Amino acid sequence: MSTAPLRVAVVGGGIGGVATALALHRRGLDVQLYEQAPELKEVGAGVAIQPNGVKMLERLGLGGDLRRTGAKWVDPQFRRQDGTFAASMWPPEIASSIEFYGMHRADLLDMFASRLPAERIHTGHHCVDFEQSADQATVIFANGARVTADAVIGSDGIHSALQRHVVEPSRPLFSGSVAHRGLITAASVGWPAGQMRNWLGAGKHFLVFPVRANQLVNYVGFVTTEEQTRESWSAPGDPEDLKREFAGWDPMVEAILAQATHTFRWGLYDREPLATWTKGRLTLLGDAAHPMLPHAGQGANQAIEDAVAVAAILAHAKRDSAPRALKLYEQVRREQAARVQRSSRFNGALYEAAKGDLDERDRQLATQRQSRAYIWNFDAEAEAEKAAAAL
Ligand SMILES: Cc1cc2nc3c(=O)[nH]c(=O)nc-3n(C[C@H](O)[C@H](O)[C@H](O)COP(=O)(O)OP(=O)(O)OC[C@H]3O[C@@H](n4cnc5c(N)ncnc54)[C@H](O)[C@@H]3O)c2cc1C
After folding, report:
1. Is the pTM of the predicted complex or chain greater than 0.90?
2. How far is the CA of 1 from the centre of ligand 1 (A)?
3. CB 234 within 8 A of CB 15
């Protein structure tokens, strides 16, 4: 009987795909990563790694990198638009036990990619089609390449080309909000190390946290709009629009925007949770499986959990049992990710409440530790190991 490692093709080299390739590589599987772009690259923006993500990065041996290149949050606070205090994200007395890091997206991507052998990364591969039989799966690329594997993981983002080979794609749902994002140096506004602030107003909010070992500050201005925008993370925005939207807010918001020279404009979409993620030897991961609004700050964290979980289960699979293993991965992850998708919508509405009792809203904001406990305490790897026993 062959003892060759399982061959896994990962399609899409964003944060979800590179994390998956690394997790599979560390488990000794024969993984190949295919990305359409000419190089692995991320946009200049921030991402927050929450306690559930920190746990997964530790398991991937990346805890040291995270602490070196991230910026640990200290005393994160919600404020009203005039700068008055609304709520702390967690009580100061438990601060030392909560690890939460702001990261530059490129630093996070590089953390995974730099540990993958170069010969496992295939850029310039745009997936256009997929076929499978009982014993193998084939991914077809626009450059004419055809790749066969025992299992294929579609981590090709919200516009996934592989999703339709699994399930009827659900329609993108526009949230009615756009985000304008950018980075400035921390020194330019004297931003204190580790401070996260989220200023909340009616139909708008402004989120700021440091990244890259506190050298840079990431800001995102969320604004309600009637104009449907593209589902894109990288369309250029106009800093002057953003300054107008937040004119008269806390002077620190205005000081940050005074430094903004270019911004990206990001139309906020999500989709209803999918009925299934897996068909035969093909499964979905990250935004291809569960695109979510950014208001729980969990898109990347959930993708990293998917990565660790799918690798833990596939490590126990053989060629014949690979389809069953992918189904078990889905069982471990789908409900949890769907719950987080729903809570991302809920958080957005809470942040931008226009009416009602704002004191009650602020009391709810102060219970993040309790309301996010099901997210922060989830151990995707332990759940996956348990599920793998059924193989
Ligand atoms: C500004 C911003 C802030 C965010 N903040 C947070 C945060 O604080 N915390 C958090 O957890 N999440 C956050 N998110 C969400 C998170 O970043 C995403 O959920 C996560 O990056 C999803 O990763 P992914 O790899 O699944 O998809 P993507 O990052 O979209 O990557 C998909 C990859 O697949 C490639 N691809 C697409 N189609 C094909 C094809 N046909 N063939 C080959 N390759 C293909 C693409 O080029 C891309 O590289 C944020 C997102 C943005 C934009």
Report:
1. yes
2. 39
3. no
